[in-house]
Specification:
This protein is an alpha/beta fold. It has 2 domains: 172 residues, Aspartate Aminotransferase, domain 1; 276 residues, Type I PLP-dependent aspartate aminotransferase-like (Major domain) (Aspartate Aminotransferase, domain 2), CATH 3.40.640.10. Helices cover 39% and strands 16% of the residues. It has a 7-stranded mixed beta sheet, sandwiched between helices. A 4-stranded mixed beta sheet has the order 1-2-3-13. Helix 7 packs parallel to helix 8, helix 12 packs parallel to helix 14 and helix 13 crosses helix 14.
Length: 459
């Protein structure tokens, strides 16, 4: 198997590649098939896909309806450039999205994924300010632990420091606010008082920079890859109110939370009471089958920079595969499945059970925190009396890798982000399957805890 894996890894450079070990033997699973919420590796092991690919396999694997829609579209029209043509699949998908977005977010721009959606939304904001003669409006507000992508602009507004310490990003114009996680700091405050602190911090930073200099505030309603951080109650709405008070653009990054992850097509208004100026989306739009992303922007925003107000400018941004008809066909087929099978209501029904069952893991000493909402959750692990500094980081990585390896033995794929296991299963998961998933994770955590304590594998 070692030689086989070495062969698999000979020519690939994967996202977040471990450069010191590049090209060597790799324990990364080799996945060969999928059905429903399950995937099968090259050893024949059937695993529950705990993270649903990467937050995206909404309707599950092996959907004949999506395969047929893609095949039919390829034969009818396999490609159409959005630079100079329009295709019917794009028109229908944009219409459906506009029908579900909050407020007047009725104009849709399609990209290739989440990173390009965020990048494109930020470039639109830059263009808008330049057209309106507000070229000084360049500052962007984000949060620590936020993840918005890996293209230049989206990586610049990402607040995960370890992801970009050795790569260049825009720095002078990007400002990060405290991560809105009560358990991480200010535990001497109540959750309400902590929320007050966060909102005041946002307003203070705006006033410090000068409202006339701030372009936008970009925020995931729930911070996904930062560790499934659910902000305090009313935090999102109160931040939105502050931002709108100073006429600053509010961008809701719903790349993870849209298309059913929280039980709605979009979570901003229905879950958090926020009507953003722009919503970015991707991932679950096609149930992960083919790449597609984009953003929806408000009519008010567009009216201020189009027609006579445009100054003759163009939005010179786009991609070869923007509004690709095959990708749009896959998205429409996935949308039909979600509607026909009532998956939004299903998520709202099973999500409380999902969160409740995961919280039963708190009786395991290794588990420091369980948090989440909808069908997204994080199980954070930490050793008692642990070490500090770089040794703590090395310890946390080792804990995550150990739990991950044990999970494989019990038929569960998780996504370890250092010492945090991310759980965001396909929307079709049942309560019985949730039980199976939590039991597998429990077995893995108990074994890892015993292993770490008895053998002291981590100093």
């Amino acid at each position: 198997m070692s030689a086989c894996r070495h062969h698999f890894n000979r020519h690939s450079l994967h996202p977040w590649a471990d450069l010191p070990g590049l090209g060597g033997d790799d324990s990364t699973p080799v996945i060969v098939s999928g059905e429903g919420i399950y995937i099968t590796d090259d050893q024949g092991r059937r695993l529950i896909d705990g993270p649903a690919g990467m937050w995206c396999m909404q309707t599950g694997y092996g959907r004949r309806e999506i395969a047929d829609a893609v095949a039919e579209q390829i034969m009818q029209l396999g490609y159409s450039t959005a630079f100079s043509t329009i295709n019917p699949r794009e028109v229908e998908l944009a219409r459906r999205i506009a029908g579900e977005t909050p407020g007047d977010l009725n104009r849709v721009f399609f990209t290739t994924g989440g990173s390009t959606a965020v990048d494109s939304a930020l470039r639109l904001c830059q263009l808008a300010n330049n057209i309106k003669g507000q070229r000084q409006r360049k500052h962007i507000l984000s949060r620590y632990h936020a993840y918005h992508g890996s293209t230049f602009l989206s990586a610049s507004v990402t607040g995960k420091e370890r992801d970009k310490t050795a790569m260049d990003t825009l720095q002078e114009q990007v400002h990060f606010l405290s991560v809105p996680c009560h358990s991480y700091h200010h535990q001497e405050l109540s959750e309400e008082a902590f929320c007050d602190f966060l909102v005041q911090e946002l307003e203070d930073r705006i006033l410090e920079l000068g409202p006339e200099n701030v372009m936008c505030f970009i925020a995931e309603p729930v911070l996904g890859s930062g560790g499934v951080i659910v902000p305090p109650a009313n935090y999102n709405r109160r931040c939105w109110e502050v931002v709108k008070k100073y006429d600053i653009v509010y961008i809701a990054d719903e790349v993870v939370t849209a298309f059913g992850r929280l039980g709605h097509w979009f979570a901003s208004e229905k879950v958090f009471g926020v009507v953003p100026d722009i919503i970015t989306f991707a991932k679950g739009l096609t149930s992960g089958y083919v790449p597609l992303g984009g953003f929806a922007v408000s009519d008010r925003f567009i009216e201020e920079i189009s027609g006579a107000a445009s100054g003759g400018n163009i939005y010179s941004n786009g991609y070869t595969w923007s509004a690709n008809p095959v990708s749009c066909a896959a998205a429409l087929a996935s949308w039909d499945i979600i509607e026909r099978e009532g998956l939004l209501a299903h998520v709202r029904e099973v999500a409380p059970y999902f969160q409740q069952q995961l919280r039963t893991l708190l009786d395991i000493p290794l588990v420091a925190d369980v948090r989440g909402t909808g069908l997204m959750a994080a199980v954070e692990m930490r050793l008692e009396n642990g070490v500090n500094g770089e040794k703590l980081l090395a310890q946390d990585y080792a804990i995550g890798e150990l739990v991950d390896s044990y999970c494989h033995q019990f038929g569960l794929l998780v996504r370890p982000l250092i010492n945090v296991c991310i759980m965001s299963p396909p929307l079709i998961i049942t309560k019985n399957q949730i039980d199976d998933m939590v039991l597998a994770l429990r077995k893995a955590l108990v074994l890892a805890d015993a292993d770490l304590r008895s053998r002291k594998k981590i100093a």
